[in-house]
Amino acid sequence: MITMNMPIWLDQTLNMAISRQFAAEELAEIAGMLADLGLGQSVISLDEWQHNQPSLAAVQKCLGLSGLLTLSECNLQLAQKAGIEQVILVCSIEEQNGLVAKLQSVLPAAKEQDLKVSLLLEVAGAFTETLLSGLAATCRQYSIAAVNYWDKTGQGNPFAVHKQISILKSRLACPVGIAAGNAYGLATANTLAALKAGAGQVIAAIGGIGGCAPWEEVFMAAREIGELEAEVPRDLAGTCRQIFAAFNLPVAVDKAIIGPAIFAHESGMHVDGVSKMPEIYEPFAPELVGLTRQLVVGKHSGTATLRTKFAAWGISLEEEESNRLLAGVRSLAVRKKTAISDNELRKLYLSG
User: Which residues lie across from 54 on neighbouring strands?
Assistant: First the structure.
């Protein structure tokens, strides 16, 4: 097992709603669902917020907010206008050579406004010694709240991310976080690598909305393999799917953690095994996230599937009955080219 400490979760789901110009009431509804999942902090783009400037008062009754501002065109007044007391300055790759100088020009104004400041540092390749030294001094001078490693393009890998987070941890006095892009499907793995290296905060989104790490995947993986001491929110899968619905986004049936069919079993040997020792086939009990195990009856099913299925209905199938019924099941499934429903299964049984 890999022991991981509970990070501060910084949600970016709400940021997608801001970019789509959701009304204040819709933002508050999403914020409430995020709070139900135990998420207490969200980050939103103030540059996006200023287009229609919805009220954030109801949102901030549920969540703490941090405002994203691009360092190169930093308008700190937007934070005051939005009623936000924490900002995250987004630093692009192109700014790294002059990063410290640019920070030195912006941070005094942030201090005057009593803004709590963190950094989101886009990185490609290794940190230079000059950058690390200047960054460390600036963080100390202005009491930077956190520095987040941003793999914007998603081209990082767990080994490289672990190394870079370890370097930042060793050089900076402030907490270090991770914002992993998911362009190549590695956001969850890279985030877990960062947590293993000691990252103290994670920027993620429900289901990976917006192209970042899927919060529920990181949370459950850290809990199951990282011994993260955390209670699973009630109906985690259902709440996440409600959030998807708020964006009119479909949830793939096999979506990790929240997909409705991830605990579906069809193969005869598979069903027999999962009924005896589910921990071998399932990473956690489906009820933990608000899902249920499903036994799919189709052309790959065996008699074990049928006996288990009918036992749940209070019917004990004899071996001869099971074999006869299985032949009918496979014939129907082949003709339909899909699994058969419970009603179809009952009709086959009653037809003898």
Answer: none
Q: Which two tokens stand for residue 172?
A: 């900076």
Check if the beta carbon of residue 118 is closer than 8 Å to that of residue 87. Answer: yes
Element holding 7 (H helix, E strand): none
Q: How many helical (H) and strand (E) elements, i.e. helices and strands, does the chain have?
A: 15, 10
Of 188, 215, 246, which marks where a domain is finished? 246
Residue 254 located in a structural domain: no
Among candidate residues 284, 231, 281, 222, the one with its CA nearest the CA of residue 257: 284
- In this structure, are 119 and 223 located in the same domain? yes
Q: Yes or no: say if 191 and 250 are a contact pair by the CB < 8 Å rule.
A: no
pLDDT tens, position by position, 135-185: 999 999 999 999 999 999 999 999 999 999 999 999 999 999 999 999 999
Q: Are 180 and 205 in contact, with CB atoms under 8 Å apart? A: no
User: What whole-number distance in Å separates Cα of residue 155 and Cα of residue 69?
Assistant: 24
SS3 at position 121: strand
Amino acid at 113: Q
Confidence band, pLDDT 50/70/90 cuts, at residue 2: low
Quick one: DSSP state of residue 128?
Answer: P
- Per the listing, tokens 């229609």 go with 52
Q: Closest Cα to residue 56, out of 80, 85, 84?
A: 84
Write down the pTM of the prediction. Answer: 0.85
Written as one letter, the residue type at 216 is E
Is 242 found in the same domain as 274? no
320, 284 Cβ separation under 8 angstroms:
no
| DSSP category for residue 71 | G
Helices (H), 56-127: 77-82, 99-112
User: Over the stretch 192-203, which tens digit does the pLDDT of each residue have?
Assistant: 999 999 999 999
Residue 269: pLDDT band (50, 70, 90) is low
- Does residue 47 form part of some domain? yes
Q: Is residue 118 part of a domain?
A: yes
The total number of structural domains in the chain stands at 2
- Please tell me whether residues 153 and 230 are part of one structural domain: yes
User: What residue numbers bound the domain in which 297 lies?
Assistant: 264-350
| Residue 232: inside a domain | yes
